[in-house]
Amino acid sequence: MAAVRTYVHPETGEISLPRVLFALSEPLRLEMVRKLAEEGELDSIELGPDLPRSTLTHHTSLLRESGVAFVRAEGRKCMISLRAEDLDLRFPGLIDTVLSGYKSARAEESDDETRGSGVEQ
Amino acid sequence: MAAVRTYVHPETGEISLPRVLFALSEPLRLEMVRKLAEEGELDSIELGPDLPRSTLTHHTSLLRESGVAFVRAEGRKCMISLRAEDLDLRFPGLIDTVLSGYKSARAEESDDETRGSGVEQ
DNA sequence: TTGATTGTGCGAATATTTTCGCACTATGAT
DNA sequence: ATCATAGTGCGAAAATATTCGCACAATCAA
């Protein structure tokens, strides 16, 4: 037999704005969310290849508990996806504006690096 | 003479997304930001009438340092305003979507209260 | 069944945040 | 000058968050 791993998720209507913002305020998690938005469902190792496992679990749990991510067991793996539709129902436009702001700030940073170091491709 | 109180603010281009999200992830500060958005410039006491002064200073400093609020001395008072234009230049739409999400979640909560307690106005 | 892989949960160390009293400075009113 | 008011900054306590080793459970493959 098999006690399949299950995960509890807040319902869409119960997702709390401060908790979502808090989840997104951590650079590591913000980057995870970007990956999920761009690449769709990922297993947790793809989400944080260099992190110790227990640290990874910590962050994915936080994303799940805050309503940002949906988690399901798939064999040994742990598949994670962004709850984009739910978030958009609950807080319309939020994830999009956060991610596009993140993207443009990142683009700017790599500009800086390129100019600052004289690196040219 | 008089060493007038001055406040340092990050430039628009230096405002960091995680820091802004973190600033907004605290319920107390989120409520402050809502007040600032709705009522315009306020002095710090209007922003947190029931808070101890040093706690108030802590939160307004955090809002200022994260680029969310602009602070200026006015006599003895400390006038605080939302850096709405700067934030919108840096992270277009962010503050609006956060505040409208906050508003609708709040509306829903008071719905709950009303229904739950049978209170009717 | 054995072994390798993936994830979980505990517990402890560390770091960060929050709260707030208190002494102090700046300002304005009398 | 004196007094009351508003705000700041320090420092300490408490609360939270983060990191991660380690033992363990679940799954799959051989």
Automatic annotation (TrEMBL), chains A, B:
Region (Disordered): 102-121
InterPro entries (UniProt xref): HTH_ArsR_DNA-bd_dom, WH-like_DNA-bd_sf, WH_DNA-bd_sf
Source organism, top-level taxon: Bacteria
Residues annotated as domain HTH arsR-type: 19-96
GO function terms (MF aspect): DNA-binding transcription factor activity
Alphabetical list of SUPFAM superfamilies matching this protein: Winged helix' DNA-binding domain
Name of the featured protein: Transcriptional regulator, ArsR family
